[in-house]
């Protein structure tokens, strides 16, 4: 019985398919190079028009290759690991205040670490502004002269301690005077201050067993003041806060 042309083509395609199956092994850990080589062989042996492009083959093979074992031991941190990092702390805030009652602090000695300033304090919002002499003259009675002292706590956090300057008579009240005494003592030793409400002054306590030396910031006093009052330096009478205090806004 004679076979038709269609039957002959079907037999040839089936033979080519069987040949392709015979050429391809059953890969478990087949490399990309092996698959590309097999693809070329299949194309030469039969109809290769339906073969996947190389990129698709590489993706398919990569998905079948199991990952290597995870090296947990290599993830252990060594002592002093942070020393190898090029990280530098950026100083973005400097509080202006009396240190908290549990904080031991030191004050840096030297006139270059003191900054006399005119400070406008808004008690309702507990915000302080650094103002010029011209601004202070436009709102008499609302601005106070203060001396800012550079201090640090045991964690090297800078604090500008603000001690009010003497009044027109050259005197300070007991709260301000006792805070000044704490500043003076803290130039040579670690101290902390706490309010003594019954006595109307600050208690000053000395640390008897802190061998640590203070770590001072690298910025100058002018730079520290600028950071402390960032966004709160008033040099123009048209400032909204001053306009409000003058009843003009």
Question: In words, what does this structure look like?
Answer:
The structure is a single chain. The chain has 249 residues and is α+β, with helices and mostly antiparallel strands. It is 31% helix and 20% strand. The protein has seven helices and eight strands; from the N terminus they run H-H-H-E-E-E-H-E-E-H-E-E-H-E-H. The protein has helices at residues 5-23, 32-45, 54-64, 133-138, 174-185, 221-228, 240-245, and strands spanning 105-107, 114-122, 127-131, 143-153, 158-164, 191-196, 201-206, 233-234. The strands form two sheets. Strands 1, 2, 3, 4, 5 and 8 form a six-stranded mixed β-sheet that branches. A two-stranded antiparallel ribbon has the order 6-7. The chain is elongated, with a radius of gyration of 39 Å. The N and C termini lie far apart (110 Å). The relative contact order is 0.12. The mean pLDDT is 83.
Provide a brief overview of the structure:
This protein has 249 residues and is an alpha+beta fold. The protein has helices at residues 5-23, 32-45, 54-64, 133-138, 174-185, 221-228, 240-245; strands at 105-107, 114-122, 127-131, 143-153, 158-164, 191-196, 201-206, 233-234. It is built from 7 helices and 8 strands; from the N terminus they run αααβββαββαββαβα.
Task: Detail the topology: elements first, then pairings.
Layout lengths: L4 H19 L8 H14 L8 H11 L40 E3 L6 E9 L4 E5 L1 H6 L4 E11 L4 E7 L9 H12 L5 E6 L4 E6 L14 H8 L4 E2 L5 H6 L4
Parallel strand pairs: 3-8
Antiparallel strand pairs: 1-4, 2-3, 2-4, 4-5, 6-7
Task: Please bin the fraction of helical residues.
Answer: 25-40%
Tally of alpha and pi helices: 7
Largest sheet: 6 strands, mixed
Integer-rounded radius of gyration: 39 Å
The shape is: elongated
Low-pLDDT segments: none
Q: Give the rounded overall mean pLDDT.
A: 83
- Output the structural class: alpha+beta
Write down how many β-strands occur, each being a DSSP E stretch of 2 or more residues.
8
